[in-house]
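Ticket #4471: structure output looks truncated?

Reporter: J.K.
Steps to reproduce: submitted the chain below (637 residues) through the standard prediction queue, then opened the result file.
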Amino acid sequence: MQAESSGPGKARLAGLSLAALGVVYGDIGTSPLYALKECFDVSKHGIPEGRESILGVLSLIIWTLTLLVSVKYLWFVLRADNKGEGGILALLALAFPERRGGGQPGRASSFLVALGVLGACLLYGDGILTPAVTVVGAVEGLKLATHAFAPWVVPISVVVLIGLFVAQQAGTAAVGKIFGPVTLVWFAALAALGLYGIRLAPEVFQAFNPWYGFNLFLTYKLKCVALLGSVVLVVTGAEALYADMGHFGIRPIRWAWYAVVFPALILNYLGQGALLLANPGLSATEGFNPFFLLCPKWSLYPMVVLATLAAVIASQALISGAYSLTMQAIQLGYMPRLTIEHTSERERGQIYMPQVNWMLMVACIGLVLSFRTSTALADAYGVAVTLTMVTTTILFFFASRRVLGWRTWQALAVTVGALTIELPLAAGNLVKIPQGGWFTLVIAGAIFCVMATWKRGRKVVWERIRSSAMPLEKFILEMERREPVRVAGTAVYLAGNADAAPLALLHNLKHNKVLHRRVVILTIAVEESPRLTDLERIEVEKLDASFWRVRARYGFMEEPDVQNVLARCAEHDLEFKPMETTFFLSRETVIVGGRAGGMMPWRKRLFAVLSRNATGATTYFRLPANRVVELGLQVEI
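Returned output as attached by the reporter:
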């Protein structure tokens, strides 16, 4: 676990807290643009506007923010860090570490691992919806200034989204410096607007009494379940608190929430509620949006600009999160290799993935063109959020016992308490599936299918290769007996199994009849920890006069760098001369048609397509292209 006692000094804590405002709280900070508007859409849940219902909805919002964010995430979930890193895949690695020594997980743990992977897949749906709904919600404020802007909301939103995704290839290093200050101005504006509205009806503070929320359920019963589908919009982005923990640490995230975000959100929701209390029937008016109606006329255009900037920042955080999640999935073996570009020389975490970026852009623009309004987009929102929250809670139960050392009753108390809130929220969002909630489920299902197929397919390929492999020790003894022709230089063979002779080595010897004077078998393993120390990185072993074995280990949030590994080998009396070193790789071509692996034919064909389109090992491991020899290998599945 990450120690808090050795946290940053006051100045550094303030700087990290400011930076966390933009990256961590951008999504949840833009929820006031559309959340309360959706809560008072009578056509969705049938609860009429009135004093009791207004105070009841506000009470639900206040206590949902308090119990789920302030209590569950800030005080409990953040404690389950994987060497300082968070996120659902990090939590999955803590709760169910892969078994060593060939042990097989039971059905229950296999199901929960699959549930955790599905939770990660749901975050992709969130990453697609967030840019769409926040940008459209911000631009819609123009309609209140003049109806002339109404036809231009969708085109302007599309242009903003295109600019956002095109800018990704330049990196976020420079733009990231203004994220915190701009978001601080945004939260200050939220608080100011809230105070401006509260003066209209100070009685709105009665919403802190939880009885108003309970009374709403007693009065309207099942109608409140549909209402919860809109209430959950106030906590969209809460998962980012945990996912971005490794970038900032626990203390800055907590300080930013309690000092800035939480007060600003509560004040703004109270201000919007006071506006409704002071103007009965306001929710029935055309173009109703309490956030922008709360703004004085002179501030409307500046607030639209500020809201758009805040929406872009919120979108940036989700897009960067999609890159990070994809890299973790690749490292853990759930997705094929994709191109990863580093956009900062200083920060390794700042990456750009072209394939992911363009797929997100096409999906976001397609959503905007299809749904066209923030109200319609909000119907698709929430399903992914609530199901991911439920998944996190379940995984936390197992991680808290294993990592935090909690007793079963302690873990159950927190789990049951969180699920008591989250399951009704999830049920409220399930009724939104026909209106648009199906979208995130389709996206998550498609990505889960890809992940499961890739994981299973790689296992089948690995078993087929391993069955024909020769033990490395046996191969070395055979070479001593046969004494093949030796050529000058060093050959580095990348292998998945450190104890077997790589197939590329066997094929090279079979076809070219030669062996280099020095042969290095290099294996790269990804561990369950997010990052490893330099002392844990490499292990060098001299097998005989000409054979060496190098094991390199990386965390699932690190990108392997073969050149760096070879440079580190000098510390172990193994030096490489770049112009005298040749890299040999096996490039598998998957042939569909066998009966191996127990995979359905369509999954085999999908795996073959994924395998053909995966980024080559030369690019992924950053090998010098003019020093690489690839030897083809056909594997039938």
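Triage note (M.O.): checked the attachment and the full token line is present. Strands lie at 341-342, 351-352, 470-471, 485-495, 500-501, 514-526, 538-542, 547-554, 581-591, 628-636.
Status: closed, working as intended.
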